[in-house]
Structures are given as structure tokens and as C-alpha cells.
Amino acid sequence: MQPFNFCIPPKYLKANPLRFYPVKKNFLLITYAEADDITNPFTYNDWGIVIDLDGVIHSKIKLGPLYVNNTTKEWKPGQDSITLNVHRDNGFIRTAPITNSTGFSLQQFKM
């Protein structure tokens, strides 16, 4: 993982890109950010990784682009939302704002 996932600027302390979700018994979904070009916020993407409690990676998936404020050209971490399904085998839903739009992306991921 790139260092900006751990070294959050003070103005973003409440919006950490590194988050943990208990998706199934003995499995965690960890979301984090990756950038193709760290100097260009429009290349930042959310990623998810599923690990077990022994740290074994079971899957890694690109969740989608991160939100960038079009006026300030700043990356805004933690703008998406993960909602776990009541039946954990059916995965989770991710909602995220779309850059340059007033719309939202809605995606379902199955485990």
C-alpha cells in the first residue's frame, strides 16, 4: 500500500482511506487507495482486499475511482460507503460520488 494511506493530512483525519469491514466469519475487507500518479489526484482509485485472520490474501479488486473536488482539484478520501449485506455470503454494496457529477455510483460485490 502506498504511504498516503497511513499519513493522512490533518484536514482529512476523519476521512481515512484505510478502512476495515468484517465481511464473513474470519474474513476482513480492507479498503485503501492507490494512485497511478501520486501527483495527479484524478488517477487515485479505491481498492479492496479480502484477507483471513492469518493475513492470507484471498482476493483483491479495484472498487472504482476516488472522488476529486473539481473546483479545488483535491482528492477527498473516505467519500464512499460500504454497506454489508445481512446475509454475508451475498457480499456488500458500495456507493460513491462521481467526480464532475452530482450523481452516485452504486455497485454490488459478491463474496
Structural key phrases:
4-stranded antiparallel sheet, 3-stranded antiparallel sheet, 111 residues, mainly beta
Overall description:
The chain has 111 residues and is mostly beta strands. The strands form three sheets. Strands 1-2-3-4 form a four-stranded antiparallel β-sheet, with no helix packed on it. The chain has a three-stranded antiparallel β-sheet with strand order 7-8-9, with no helix packed on it. 0% of the residues lie in helices and 48% in strands. The chain is globular. The protein is built from no helices and nine strands. It has one domain.
Indicate the radius of gyration in whole angstroms: 14 Å
Going across the major beta sheet, what is the strand order?
Answer: 1-2-3-4
Main β-sheet, in a few words?
A: 4 strands, antiparallel
Instruction: Tell me, briefly, the overall form.
Output: globular
Relative strand content:
over 45%
The succession of helices and strands, N to C, reads EEEEEEEEE
The total count of strands amounts to: 9
User: CA-to-CA gap between the ends?
Assistant: 22 Å
Question: How would you state the average pLDDT, rounded?
Answer: 87
**Which regions are unreliable across 5 or more consecutive residues at pLDDT < 50?**
none
Percent helix: under 10%
* Tally of individual domains: 1
Give the structural class.
Answer: mainly beta
Query: How many H/I helical runs?
Result: 0
Quick summary of this structure?
This protein is mainly beta.
